[in-house]
Amino acid sequence: MAAVTSPETSPQARVYFQTPAGTAAEEPETPVRKQGRVTVKYDRKELRKRLNLEEWIIEQLTDLYDCEEEAIPELEIDVDELLDMPSDVERGARVKDLLVDCFKPTEDFVSELLDKIRGMQKLSTPQKK
Which of 75, 95, 67, 98 is nearest to 83 (CA)? Predict the structure, then answer.
């Protein structure tokens, strides 16, 4: 169907084409690629270890604070930050500082956490080749 504008409404005549609904002229939808999107590959095994560690940390914190996950006080145990530290003594002190408002004993949690992160790699963004 074509619609022509009248000369009174526009100085030049324009033609608009419309396809009736339900006709085969509709194009199939294709996914739109976003420009500038970069995909980065990480070591899946290392990601799995990190995910398991984070789930373990949340489970331990819910036990330490006797609450649900949503009610855990705002604290961030940054594994990469801990891995950057030169010794287990400094790592342990950092974690204990983060858990200063916990009334339950945290020594077992800290020692288990240090055991679990020993040998892990930092998750840094790989450089382009």
Answer: 95
Query: CA–CA separation, 74 vs 76, rounded Å?
Result: 7
Copy the structure tokens of residue 86.
């030169």
User: Which pLDDT tens digit goes with each residue over 4-40?
Assistant: 555 555 566 667 666 666 655 555 566 655 544 444 5
The long-range contacts involving 123-127, CB below 8 angstroms and separated by at least 24 positions, are 123/42, 123/46, 123/47, 123/50, 123/80, 124/80, 125/40, 126/40, 126/41, 126/42
Confidence (pTM) = 0.61
Give the chain's end-to-end CA distance (angstroms, integer): 54
Residue 63: what are its φ and ψ, rounded to 5°? -70, -45
Dihedral over Cα of 50, 51, 55, 61: its sign: positive
